[in-house]
Design a protein that fits this description.
about 375 residues, alpha/beta, 2 domains, eight-stranded parallel beta barrel, three-stranded antiparallel sheet, about 15% strand, binds flavin mononucleotide
């Protein structure tokens, strides 16, 4: 049986994190993942944008047992209670993924404050809702709030510099996210094969765990993460293409159909983003090259300096996904899409990943003979 420090820290069976994935919701996917024995993460980016992208809010509340008229705090309270109810029989463990980048910081505070309050008011929730996972921003300054409330705190970084910042901030689990990962990716293209061992060497110790993200999608890649010294792997694209995933069918099918060299990088809402390669995303990449070349040069830009027509294009294209319009849709996914050929049930998939990882790890010592 594979077991790592990650399992012991949060009480999961297998050292796998189902990544939080926006923008719509992965409320049902999180339940299925938690019940399959891995850490399920609720994405919360779907509640950011009721005014500008109401279709995203609508999709989120529909899978949260909430109403369109509810405010963010009420929606969060409902989704946390719903998730707890649906995982408690199987002892599932879950958390929330909250982006803390400058563009969305005011919402991050509402979400995290609500999570802390609701968990305090519902002591039963403490057995299941154990993790706050922050992303896309600076970890410094969040420790007292998150750890003070008794959560395990995870934060995702794209660099060794980011990992050192996490150490300073007091993060429990650093998730090193390589450039091959789906959707939000880093300004500089450092991939998991380099990033993960570098972050392990820099940051892994008695207090701090390290998990790999970006390209992990099966037993081979999970075994590699563990052999590289990580405490587990976070998987996004792999969980996206599952039966229980809340993603639109055209998005899931897009991942399964993706072949060799199936993704590209272009501007996304909070920085560079990795999309499935389609005529629409190719057009977006060409526009990015003209209007926001820093994405390809590793030079960050933001809403004060960039051409907002890129964001407008993304918003229209995400709406097209919601409407099932394949031609206009932009669908994010990681390079792992080219290795994903099926759309299994989450539990079957987790069991297969675990079986394959165990078989590989059992054979590793033979390499020394
Ligand atoms: C469709 C999609 C949406 C994502 N949305 C978010 C998000 O809202 N916030 C975030 O921190 N990461 C997001 N990610 C990144 C994942 O959390 C994870 O780090 C990444 O998928 C790992 O790489 P992989 O796709 O190769 O497994 C998203 C990834 C995908 C594929």
């Amino acid at each position: 049986m594979i077991r790592s420090r990650l399992c012991d820290l949060v009480g999961i069976k297998y050292p796998i994190i189902q990544a939080g994935m926006g923008p719509f919701s992965n409320n049902n996917l999180c339940v299925a993942a938690a019940n399959a024995g891995v850490l399920g993460l609720l994405s919360t980016s779907g509640v950011f944008d009721k005014e500008i992208q109401p279709w995203i809010y609508k999709a989120f509340v529909e899978t949260a047992g909430a109403n369109f008229d509810d405010d963010i705090a009420t929606v969060m309270e409902k989704v946390l209670k719903r998730t707890t109810n649906l995982v408690k029989d199987k002892g599932g463990i879950f958390g929330i993924n909250v982006m803390v980048s400058a563009e969305v910081l005011k919402y991050s505070h509402v979400i995290i404050d609500t999570a802390i309050r609701v968990r305090e008011e519902n002591p039963d929730m403490k057995k299941h809702f154990k993790v706050i996972f922050t992303s896309a921003g600076d970890p410094l300054g969040w420790k007292d709030k998150i750890k003070g409330a008794g959560f395990t705190w995870m934060h995702v970084v794209p660099s060794v510099k980011g990992a050192l910042r996490c150490k300073k901030a007091g993060v429990d689990v650093i998730v090193a996210s390589g450039h091959e990962g789906g959707f939000h990716t880093s300004w500089e293209p450092v991939h998991s094969m380099i990033l993960l061992p570098a972050v392990v060497e820099t940051a892994s110790d008695k207090e701090t765990l390290v998990v790999g993200a970006g390209g992990f999608c099966d037993g081979k890649t999970l075994a590699a993460a563990l052999v590289m010294g990580a405490d587990g792997a976070q998987m996004g694209t792999r969980f996206l293409a599952t039966q229980e995933s809340d993603f639109h069918q055209i998005w899931k099918e897009g991942v399964v159909a993706a072949g060799d060299r199936a993704t590209l990088v272009a501007r996304g809402f909070v920085g560079p983003a990795r999309w499935l390669k389609t005529p629409r995303s190719t057009e977006h990449a060409k526009n990015t090259l003209q209007k926001s070349p820093g994405v390809f040069l590793g030079t960050p830009d933001d809403f004060t300096t960039m051409d907002m027509s890129l964001i407008k294009f993304e918003i229209e294209s995400i709406k097209a996904v919601f409407e099932g319009n394949k031609e206009k849709a932009l669908m994010a996914a990681g390079e792992a899409a080219q290795r994903i050929k099926d759309m299994p049930k989450v539990n079957d998939m987790v069991q297969e990943i675990v079986r394959e990882t165990e078989a590989i790890l059992r054979d590793v010592p033979k390499l020394l003979a």
